[in-house]
Specification:
With about 260 residues, this protein is of the alpha/beta class. Helix content is about 50%, strand content about 15%.
């Protein structure tokens, strides 16, 4: 059986790969449990200075496994589990080491939130981003309403969230969502070169700077992220995101995504 999460460490850089390519690396229950554990282990690992997060081609991450959530996949689709998942407001515990998102394909909804929780993003020319929470009928719970406006501005964030439309790699670069766009085959080499630059610095200094960024932004973002998580949980409790409704919407969302991404 293929491992759903791959971790490779080389030259003090860990590459973490979501590995469910047949379903665009959708986050089923097993992967949602594995990812936070892996991140915590790498954050404690004294042999790792930088983490690169990516997905197995052709996608970065399609978000929560809607088939499972809609009751079609069995196991892990329980709303109580999803509520527990989002109550903390993060896909994994905060990481003290620099995290680079290597966006190799589509990053959608929960997968988009995974990307936004990285320190910065490098995109393949094949990358596409979409917030389809409103199309699924669920609410963000991993910081999207805070992190997306920080990256692209409030009006563009509102556009993405209310339309559910995809933003391609070049537009993402113009909007400030990603730092660079590179040829697909150059994505991981570029990320690893940047990681090597980070490794060459004083690591205590790097982590203290990152912590200072986090402390400064937390003054305004912590209450906002807490509010988002509370809204998301309340939405589920009040009947939003019902499994049967999620399943009804799932196929339409997939088809629409294929049309927009091409």
């Amino acid at each position: 059986m293929e491992d759903i999460l791959l971790v490779e460490v080389s030259r003090r850089v860990a590459t973490v790969t979501l590995n469910r390519p047949a379903v665009r690396n959708a986050l089923n229950g097993a992967l949602r449990r594995r990812l936070p554990t892996a991140m915590e282990e790498l954050d404690r690992d004294e042999g790792v200075d930088v983490i690169i997060l990516t997905g197995a081609d052709p996608a970065f991450c399609a978000g929560l496994d809607l088939k499972e959530l809609g009751g079609g996949g069995g196991g892990g689709g329980d709303q109580g589990e999803v509520r527990e998942l989002i109550e903390g407001g993060n896909p994994f515990s905060p990481v003290s080491k620099p995290m680079i998102g290597a966006i190799n394909g589509v990053a959608v909804t929960g997968g988009f939130e995974l990307a936004l929780n990285c320190d910065f993003l490098i995109a393949s020319e094949r990358a596409n981003f979409a917030d389809t929470h409103a199309r699924v009928g669920i609410q963000p719970g991993w910081g999207l309403t805070v992190l997306l406006p920080q990256a692209v501005g409030l009006r563009r964030a509102r556009e993405m969230s209310t339309t559910g439309n995809f933003v391609d790699a070049r537009t993402a670069l113009e909007w400030g969502l990603v730092n660079r766009v590179v040829a697909h085959d150059d994505l991981l080499p570029t990320c690893r070169a940047l990681a090597a630059d980070i490794v060459s610095n004083d690591q205590a200094g790097v982590r203290r700077i990152l912590r200072t960024y986090a402390e400064a932004t937390a003054i305004t973002t912590t209450p906002a992220r807490r509010l988002e998580a509370e809204v998301s949980v309340e939405w589920l409790r009040s009947g939003g995101g019902r499994p049967e409704e999620v399943e009804r919407r799932r196929k339409a969302i997939i088809e629409r995504g294929r049309t927009q991404v091409g």
